[in-house]
C-alpha cells in the first residue's frame, strides 16, 4: 500500500471520506497528537485500527466529532457540569466520557457501557470531521506503545505502507494527548491528565476527582493499562532533585562510549552544558509541545536517553509527568 502525506483540501478530503466510508483508516491532525481515524459505526473498520497499530483490544478508543455534531445521538445523558465544561473548554484538548446509547460499534469502548467523545480544536481536524460527518474512532496514529506522533512525518515513519493517507496539519501545538474526564457520576473524575488540568476543571465546576488505576483492573481510558509513548532505545528517568545522579549516569555512559543524551527542560539544560541535550523548553506549554518530538529525536540520534523531570509537576505538568513515567520510568 502506498502511503501519502496530503495537504488538506477538497481533493484530499474527498479521498479521505471515500476511504472512511469504505472501511479504511485515515491519519489526521489534532491540536494534541495525530489520530488514526475510522468509522465508529463500522466494527470491522474499528477492529482494523487495532490491527494496524498492534493495539491490545481491551484499550478503549475515543470518538472524535466536529463542533456542530449532536452528541445526544450517541450518549444517554449529559450532566449539567459536563455541559458547563463543554461550553468552557470545547473544542479543545478535553475528552469527556458518558454513558453510551450503544449506537457506535462496541469495539470502540472495548465492551464498556461508556463512550469517550472529543471535539478537537485543530482547524484541519474540524474540516476532516465536518466533511465525513460521522463519529470517527481514533487513537494516536503510531505503532502501539511507541512515541505518539506530533507531526505528519512521525505518522509516516510508523505507518508507512499500512494506511493510504496522512492529512498534513503541521506540528501539533499541544503535544500530549487530551485530558480524559469521566462524566458518568455526580462529579467529574480525571482518568488521564492533560492540558485541561484538574485546577481548571475545579475552577469551573467545583469538585473534581482523579482515578488511580490499579494493576489488573479494567482500563476505563486510553493510556491507563499498557506501556505507552516509549522510544526505541534504552531510557532512564530521574527526578529533578536527582539531577546530579542523572549527570553522573550520563558521564558514566558517555565515558563508556555510549552515544547518550539528556532530555530535560531549560532549567536543567543550563546546568548541563557539558552534555548532549534535547532541551524541551521553559514553559509548561513548550515542554508539553516538545516532549514527543524530543523523544523521537532522541531515539533517532542517540543510543540512550536520560530524562530529567521538571521541577514543577502540577497543572499541565501532571500530564507531562504521566507521559514521561510511561515512556522512560520503567526501564
Short summary of the structure?
This protein is an alpha/beta fold and 331 residues long. It has 10 helices and 15 strands.
Can you characterise this structure?
By secondary structure, the protein is of the alpha/beta class. It has ten helices and 15 strands. It has helices at residues 10-21, 43-53, 80-89, 123-132, 152-159, 198-205, 243-255, 266-269, 284-301, 316-328; strands at 4-7, 26-28, 35-39, 62-64, 94-99, 114-118, 136-137, 165-168, 179-182, 189-192, 209-210, 235-238, 260-264, 277-279, 304-308. A hairpin with a 6-residue loop joins β9 (179-182) and β10 (189-192). α1 crosses α4 and α9 runs parallel beside α10 (316-328).
Given as residue ranges, the uncertain stretches (5+ residues, pLDDT < 50) are none
Pattern of helices and strands: EHEEHEHEEHEHEEEHEEHEHEHEH
Q: Structural class, from helix and strand content?
A: alpha/beta
How much of the sequence lies in strands comes to 15-25%
Compute the CA-based radius of gyration: 20 Å
Per the principal axes of the C-alpha atoms, what is the gross shape?
A: globular
How large is the count of helical segments? Answer: 10
Mean pLDDT, all residues? 94
Adjacency order of strands in the biggest sheet? 1-8-2-3-7-4-6-5-9-10-11
What is the CA–CA distance across the termini?
35 Å
Specify the helix fraction band.
25-40%
Biggest beta sheet summary: 11 strands, mixed
Number of strands: 15
Amino acid at each position: 500500500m502506498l502511503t501519502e502525506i496530503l495537504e488538506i483540501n477538497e481533493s484530499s478530503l474527498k479521498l479521505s471520506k471515500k476511504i472512511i466510508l469504505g472501511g479504511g483508516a485515515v491519519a489526521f491532525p489534532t491540536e494534541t497528537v495525530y489520530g488514526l481515524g475510522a468509522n465508529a459505526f463500522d466494527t470491522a473498520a474499528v477492529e482494523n485500527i487495532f490491527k494496524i497499530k498492534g493495539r491490545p483490544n481491551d484499550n478503549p478508543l475515543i470518538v472524535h466529532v466536529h463542533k456542530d455534531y449532536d452528541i445526544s445521538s450517541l450518549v444517554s445523558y449529559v450532566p449539567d457540569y459536563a455541559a458547563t465544561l463543554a461550553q468552557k473548554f470545547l473544542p479543545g484538548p478535553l475528552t469527556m466520557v458518558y454513558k453510551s446509547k450503544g449506537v457506535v460499534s462496541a469495539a470502540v469502548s472495548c465492551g464498556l457501557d461508556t463512550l469517550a467523545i472529543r471535539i478537537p480544536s485543530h482547524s484541519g481536524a474540524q474540516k476532516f470531521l465536518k466533511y465525513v460527518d460521522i463519529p470517527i474512532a481514533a487513537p494516536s496514529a503510531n505503532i502501539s506503545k511507541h512515541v505518539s506522533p506530533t507531526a505528519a512525518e512521525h505518522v509516516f515513519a510508523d505507518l508507512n505502507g499500512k494506511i493510504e493517507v496522512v492529512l498534513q496539519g503541521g506540528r501539533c501545538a499541544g503535544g500530549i494527548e487530551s485530558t480524559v474526564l469521566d462524566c458518568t457520576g455526580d462529579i467529574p473524575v480525571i482518568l488521564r491528565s492533560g492540558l485541561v488540568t484538574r485546577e481548571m476543571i475545579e475552577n469551573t465546576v467545583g469538585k473534581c476527582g482523579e482515578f488511580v488505576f490499579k494493576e489488573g483492573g479494567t482500563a476505563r481510558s486510553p493510556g491507563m493499562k499498557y506501556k505507552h509513548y516509549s522510544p526505541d532505545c534504552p531510557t532512564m528517568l530521574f527526578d529533578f532533585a536527582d539531577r546530579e545522579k542523572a549527570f553522573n549516569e550520563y558521564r558514566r555512559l558517555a565515558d563508556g562510549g555510549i552515544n547518550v543524551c539528556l532530555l530535560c527542560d531549560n532549567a536543567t539544560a543550563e546546568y548541563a552544558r557539558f552534555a548532549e541535550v534535547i532541551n524541551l523548553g521553559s514553559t509548561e506549554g513548550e515542554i508539553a509541545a516538545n516532549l514527543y518530538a524530543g523523544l523521537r529525536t532522541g531515539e533517532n540520534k542517540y543510543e540512550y536517553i536520560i530524562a530529567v523531570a521538571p521541577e514543577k509537576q502540577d497543572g499541565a505538568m501532571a500530564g507531562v509527568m504521566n507521559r514521561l513515567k510511561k515512556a522512560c520510568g520503567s526501564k
